[in-house]
Amino acid sequence: MRTIGIVANPQKPRTREIVERIIRSAAQHHVDVCVASDVADQLTLEVPKVDVCDLGRTCDVLIACGGDGTILRAARLSADNPRPILGVNLGMMGFLAEMVPEELEEGIAQIVNGRYTIEERMTLEATIAGSDEVFAALNDIIIGKSNRPRVVSVEMYEAGNWVNTYVGDGLILATPTGSTGYALAAGGPIVTPFAEVIVAAPICPHSLTVRPMIFTGTATLDVRVIGAPESEVSLTADGQPTRPLDSGQMVRVRRGRRRAQLVRLETSSYYDLLRQKLHWGLDKSFG
To answer: Would you please indicate which residues are annotated as catalytic (active-site) residues?
Structure first.
């Protein structure tokens, strides 16, 4: 390994401390570090800087310091040149993060010495009919209402077959990685990241019989906005507001052409993470 790249959320209280610790730890292992230029500037760090969009080309591993949003940003920015991403959780839940600050130096030692595995995660791509623009997501594509407190209606088709019309706050189309995000809050299932499926979870549907569905990873899902006033529905990829949608517009969602790469250290597993974050197994009354 030659170079570690750092993406971070400068708004987190401990960000500067964590970035400086990464730099010192990497130096002890004779590994170079470069920091996304916007982060280095905001933190006033005198370090080698790289334009954030070039990190995927210049670094061997990316370390994302922040919450899940920072990890998703790192995956999005390196989508054309995927690099393994190691997350350091400075946020709250941090489902995608592999480490907490207390484990930082040991985690750096593990990645420098190759004591880790790479999990390739399925992504999604969304396109709007009549447009060449592609919206990529590691977690989810959301077609839902904007800021106004009105319900919206969307129709979903799979391979041209009408599935359902959803009336409510919108629809989440999530990867297995994103199944523990907004889709979980909307009542969707937890899906292991090794599965190849797409979760469709309606947001606050106006019918008690409407439930989340799981489609194969090869499915092509078309979602049409119906009966919505201008700018009341938008397409969002991984939490980044992207594009307002008009009534009648169709969004096509399918498996992404590229996969994201997340670092898994040898001391943990996905199920360890679930138990920790969701507080499973704390009731010992039957043990």
So the answer is: 68
